[in-house]
């Protein structure tokens, strides 16, 4: 995707809102210009000598009109430069060069912009103007980011960061962090980008900088969009739009609308996407925003290509390639070339698609951006499939899946979660402090209006007396407590042991949570990515029916494992919620066991394993039948996993005592060593492959233990290597109070 970050205005330096001069307002489209023309005309008619105040006003105009009218901003900046050169006013000259350089790189005139910034930097160094020097370095960093020279961009931005930290300019620091984040985002390093975006956002929120906050919400939305977390991306874009509402920052609003259009494009809502993109295109054309034009022509071309409007799509995409090549915008050029490849693939013109995909891939590798490389790999896979080169196509498809997996790195997801919690906490903390400050002020006002100084002293004295009396009483109580400490010492020690045990269990719970997140990220991504890739190939009709049939068994096997794991996991997670109600009823043990045995009879038969229901009829228990089904399902599938041809699995039942029923799942499989059996019900994932190399997560037995204990039962295992394994658990006959909470 192209660079769709918001380009901020370079602020004017020490300027006012009183203006003078004349032709500076020629062609201005803003309604309040006429109110200033008279001042400029009077100054021109009198032919008064140019002074520093007039130059500062010109530079301030250039800064103010950049967001709504870059052409006028350039005009005023040029006027400021000309006037400053005449009277050798160095600070005004540097400020004017900074404004014209900003417009030049925005318009794609990077060489001229470099000249402007270099001259401004030399002047600011002579004047020891750290603020101006920092703004020049930031502008150069933005320009080289646009030109995909990320190494040089970082050099300039880090120089600016050092200056801003030195002068403690918080607003400039927030902008600085944002621009460094943009460089890492452009390089495809989403994790690093998030670090800098949130550094900037914490500052912007802390000091109520609405403009920088809006820009950073937009940039974080881009990271979420790259990770395909589209609902959250749209939430961040909406936050940015809310903050920009009512401003004249048309370029920023157009950029956010473009980003929303790209999310809709990714979600295949092409008509809605075209609406957002077309409105952004009008703004980009009016402001001659070269970067915006490149990306918008590419996005619109992709929308029309997917709607079957091939000729129109190619026209837009060719225009995007031409503009990006002319202005040497490598990022946009790669994006446009891959877009052309996409359009030709949809038209089944695979030879043309291959040429553009190869060119786009070469630029993507040069950029090092994971998202662009992934899109190039996907289009090459489709192109080669269309050309009948299936081995190469599968290789690129595998590369695409690996690159997409890297984009959705767990580290980035965890950082997003962590930073959002921190941001919410900081916001709440500030709100509480403000409320406390308001309450304190109100209290002080009441005290001042209602009580005299003598009354306050009286209250203080009375309070001291009360405190002294209370302290004396507390002291007496403390002495009595100390006298009983020796008697209670044993109880305290027992409580400490219990507390240590709870702490250990809490640590186990945290480890279990981390493992669950890791398992979900890895175990679910592979089968879903495989299924998506297979459907992409099926949609493009680039594989034969026979090839499809050969792929199906492997995909089904992964999906069957994933589905079974999700059923168990979702039921267990639901059982951990505070709102979960455990439905304890009296049920027939035989009916529950018969249902699960029948469900897995075919699976056992396929492995040559005998599955026997040995539960006696008429045996009833009082528990949650759904929980017991989950436990039985896990124990039976676990037994099938570790048995082989000729082995037997029996499900037996009986009375343990007058109040509990015992259910056993016994197999004659491979068994396990005692040290392995001791780890089964602990929060450690140590799953082994089955007799037919079946995969597992190692979490099923943890869920079984939790569900059985919630039903007021117990579970254990007996096993011997080479002989077999027996899992057994008890459940009450009469309903007992059931605790509902998190895993103990």
Q: Layout of SSEs?
A:
Elements: H1 34-45, H2 52-64, H3 70-87, H4 90-106, H5 110-127, H6 130-146, H7 150-167, H8 170-186, H9 190-206, H10 210-226, H11 230-244, H12 250-266, H13 270-287, H14 290-306, H15 310-326, H16 330-346, H17 350-367, H18 370-386, H19 390-407, H20 410-450, H21 453-523, H22 525-539, H23 545-576, E1 585-588, H24 589-606, E2 610-614, E3 620-623, H25 625-641, E4 648-655, E5 660-667, H26 674-678, H27 700-710, E6 715-720, E7 724-732
Parallel strand pairs: 2-4
Antiparallel strand pairs: 1-3, 4-5, 5-7, 6-7
- Tell how many strands the DSSP assignment holds: 7
Question: Would you identify the regions where 5 or more consecutive residues have pLDDT less than 50?
Answer: 8-49, 738-744
Kindly provide the name of the CATH class of the domain at 585-732.
Alpha Beta
Radius of gyration: 35 Å
Task: Give the N-terminus to C-terminus distance in angstroms.
Answer: 47 Å
Tell me the name of the CATH homologous superfamily of the domain at 585-732. Answer: Histidine kinase-like ATPase, C-terminal domain
| CATH third-level topology of the domain at 585-732 | Heat Shock Protein 90
Give a short account of the largest sheet.
5 strands, mixed
Helix tally equals 27
Overall mean pLDDT stands at 79
Gross CATH architecture of the domain at 585-732:
2-Layer Sandwich
Which band does the percent of strand residues land in? 5-15%
Structural class: mainly alpha
Shape, per Cα inertia axes: flat
